[in-house]
Design brief:
By secondary structure, the protein is an alpha+beta fold. Helices cover 64% and strands 9% of the residues. It has 15 helices and six strands. The strands form two sheets. The protein has a four-stranded antiparallel β-sheet with strand order 4-5-1-6. Helix 3 packs antiparallel against helix 14 and helix 12 runs antiparallel to helix 13. The longest helix is centred in the middle third of the chain and has 58 residues.
Length: 353
């Protein structure tokens, strides 16, 4: 008796696929209607969304790599997210800090001044003006944007409206929004194993996308170069000043010695000869000092060149041909899939119970 009950329970638990398929096929018109509505609604939602383009640039900077960071030990440490080269380097700003640097207000505000031109050539303006006044928007976001701008204008002060020069330390609400937009559009990734830098820029215009990717790459290179050579350049300025002062002192002593020697050429008194020797010795000392400083100046110039990093551009900026988003077909297909699941659940809700 117990075996018969268990058999009946197992039979009830078995899913009858033929019954489900037959039931769904009988309601196929409901699927057609739901698919049509989902296709129209999803198309209406995704088609007005502006297309975006993506440009990638990749470069490899020259780094100071101690011997401990190379070989199998360095590769093993990199696999666990530990960069031995960075740990042993004297640089305070390591490649792992470059993404944070690009996202800083100082770096982004410098990008606002870049002149950009759209692919069709109809607009040439600054990057800030382009992002603020010339971005395409979906029609269904216009009411929300209008309400947001209206509320912002009510609470913005006259002082903020009159600001012309953008101060990265004191951004207005509008400037902060543009800064956040730039942070979303620019991404920097560092390969911990090779220190290769990949910069990705997203934008609505393909030409501006490529221009900004190239600009970000060059500004990052300039920052790295300025940082690496900052100490050497300070030393160079210092030695230039010392060399210039030493040269003036030497020329002054040389003129004084020459004038005294010419004026007392026929005098044989020991007092005059002693003074002439003193002037000559002073001139020689100043010349020796000047000669040493010239050597140190040349060494300082060589040090700046030595500290200047070399960059290898692995992948340069190119104008993208195809947009990378939004994925309209995938969005519509996903909406149709969710609609199918919803309709299936609606039809089979009694069977689930």
């Amino acid at each position: 008796m117990q075996l018969l009950v268990m058999a009946n329970i197992k039979e009830q638990e078995v899913i009858d696929l033929r019954h489900i398929v037959k039931k769904l096929w009988g309601r196929k018109k409901l699927f057609y209607k739901a698919w049509a509505i989902a296709f129209i609604v999803s198309s209406a939602l995704i088609l007005p969304v502006p297309r975006t383009y993506t440009c990638d640039v990749e470069l490899a900077p020259e780094t100071e790599s101690p011997s401990i960071g190379g070989g199998a030990l360095g590769s093993l440490a990199a696999s666990f997210g530990v960069d031995l080269n960075s740990a042993m380097s004297n640089d305070a700003i390591q490649p792992t800090f470059y993404p944070d640097l690009i996202e800083s207000n100082d770096f982004i505000v410098e990008l606002f001044k870049i002149k950009v031109t759209t692919k069709d050539g109809e607009l040439t303006t600054t990057y800030y003006d382009y992002l603020k006044n010339h971005q395409k928007k979906s029609f269904w976001t216009v009411p929300f944007t209008w309400i947001k701008n209206s509320l912002s204008s009510l609470f913005s002060s006259d002082e903020e409206k009159g600001v012309k020069e953008i101060d990265p330390y004191r951004l207005t609400k509008a400037e902060f929004d543009i800064t956040e937009l730039v942070r979303d559009n620019i991404d920097c990734d560092i390969d911990k194993r090779t220190d290769a830098i990949t910069i990705t820029v997203k934008d609505q215009d393909p030409l501006i996308c490529a221009l900004m990717a190239d600009s970000v790459m060059h500004r990052l290179q300039n920052f790295i170069t300025d940082y690496r050579t900052s100490k050497s350049r300070i030393d160079l300025v210092y030695y230039k000043k010392l060399t210039s002062d030493a040269k003036q002192e030497y020329e002054k002593a040389r003129r004084l010695y020459g004038s005294y020697a010419d004026a007392n050429n026929d005098i044989v008194l020991e007092s005059f000869r002693a003074k002439q020797n003193d002037l000559e010795n002073d001139m020689q000392l100043k010349y020796n000092t000047y000669s040493v400083l010239v050597t140190q100046l040349q060494a300082a110039i060589a040090k700046v060149q030595e500290r200047t990093p070399a960059f290898t551009t692995i992948q340069g900026a190119t104008v993208p041909v195809k947009p990378t988003g939004p994925k309209r077909m995938l969005f519509v297909l996903a909406m149709l899939l969710f609609t199918s699941l919803g309709v299936t659940g609606y039809i089979l809700k009694d069977d689930f119970k």
